[in-house]
Write a structure and sequence with these properties.
MetI-like fold; 11 helices; 0% strand; single chain; 284 residues; mainly alpha
Length: 284
C-alpha cells in the first residue's frame, strides 16, 4: 500500500480538523438561530419594560431583567476583588510548596462542583445560619463563591503569563514588589483577567439552581429595593414559564430565552472590546 505524501497527509489532517470544528459549531448556530426564529416575534418595548400579568402569560420581563442585573452586579462585588486578590497572592507571593499546590487542586475541584451543591450550601449558610433569608445578598454571595474558582484560575494564569523580565527590570529600578505588581504586572495581565471575570459572571448570570434556593421568586410584580429583597431572575423565570405554567405561549418562552442569550452575549462582547483595548497597550 503506497504511503501518503506529506502534502496529502496535511490536507487530510486539515480536513478532519475543519470537520471537527463544523461538527462542534454547527449545532450552536442552529440552536441560536432557532431561538431567534421562535423568540424574535415576542421582543418589543413592552416585553422588555413591562411587568408580567395574567399568570405571566402576558406583559414583560422587567422584574426578571432587573433582578438578573442586581445578581450579576452583586456577584461581581463579591467575587472579583477576592478572586483577583487570591490570584495575585498565588502567583506573586506564595511559595511553591505542598500547601499552595493543595490550594490550587482545591480551586480546580471547586470549579467542577455542580451548581446545585453551591445552592444547597448557600441555603444552609447564608439563608438559614446567617439569617439573610431568601434575598439578593444571599444569592450574590452564593454565586460569588461559585464564580471564584474560574476567576482565580484565569487571573493567575494571566499573571503568570507576564514575562519575568518585566518584574526584574522594575525591581532593579528600585520598585517594591507591590509597586511592580500594581504598575507593571497587573496592567499587562489585565486582558486575561477581564476574560476570566466575564466568563465567571456569564456563568453566574445563567445559573438556575443556586438562585432557586437563595433568592429567586416565582412571581413578583415589583422591583427589588434593597439587598435583602427577593427578586425574579431570567434563568429561573425561563424555567418557571417553561415547566410550571400551563398554556404558556411558546413565543414568550423563546423570547425570554432570547433576552437571556442577548444579555450573556452582550457581556461577552463588552469583555472582548475591553480586552482588545488593553491588549493593544501591551509591550510584549
Amino acid at each position: 500500500m503506497p504511503k501518503l505524501s506529506r502534502q496529502n497527509s496535511q490536507r487530510i489532517a486539515f480536513a478532519l480538523i475543519t470537520l471537527a470544528a463544523v461538527v462542534v459549531v454547527a449545532p450552536i448556530f442552529f440552536i441560536v438561530g432557532y431561538i431567534i426564529y421562535e423568540g424574535a416575534s415576542a421582543i418589543s418595548w413592552e416585553f422588555l419594560t413591562a411587568y408580567p400579568y395574567n399568570g405571566m402569560k402576558a406583559g414583560g420581563l422587567l422584574p426578571a431583567i432587573v433582578g438578573t442585573l442586581w445578581l450579576t452586579l452583586g456577584t461581581a462585588v463579591v467575587a472579583v476583588p477576592i478572586g483577583i486578590g487570591a490570584a495575585i497572592y498565588l502567583s506573586e507571593y506564595a511559595k511553591d510548596n505542598a500547601l499552595t499546590r493543595a490550594i490550587r487542586v482545591a480551586i480546580i475541584n471547586l470549579a467542577g462542583i455542580p451548581s446545585v451543591v453551591f445552592g444547597l450550601f448557600g441555603l444552609g449558610l447564608f439563608v438559614i445560619f446567617l439569617n439573610f433569608g431568601t434575598s439578593i445578598l444571599a444569592g450574590s454571595l452564593t454565586l460569588g463563591i461559585m464564580t471564584l474558582p474560574v476567576i482565580i484560575s484565569t487571573a493567575e494564569e494571566a499573571l503568570r503569563a507576564v514575562p519575568q523580565s518585566f518584574r526584574l527590570v522594575s525591581v532593579s529600578l528600585g520598585g517594591t514588589r507591590w509597586q511592580t505588581i500594581r504598575r507593571v504586572v497587573l496592567p499587562q495581565a489585565l486582558p486575561g483577567i477581564i476574560t476570566g471575570v466575564i466568563l465567571g459572571l456569564e456563568r453566574a448570570a445563567g445559573e438556575t439552581a443556586p438562585i432557586l434556593f437563595t433568592v429567586a421568586a416565582f412571581f413578583l410584580p415589583r422591583l427589588p429595593t434593597s439587598m435583602f429583597d427577593q427578586t425574579m431572575a431570567l434563568p429561573y423565570h425561563l424555567f418557571v414559564i417553561s415547566t410550571q405554567v400551563p398554556g404558556m405561549p411558546v413565543h414568550i418562552q423563546y423570547g425570554t430565552a432570547l433576552v437571556l442569550l442577548i444579555f450573556v452575549l452582550s457581556m461577552n462582547l463588552m469583555a472582548t472590546l475591553i480586552r482588545n483595548h488593553y491588549r493593544k497597550q501591551r509591550f510584549w
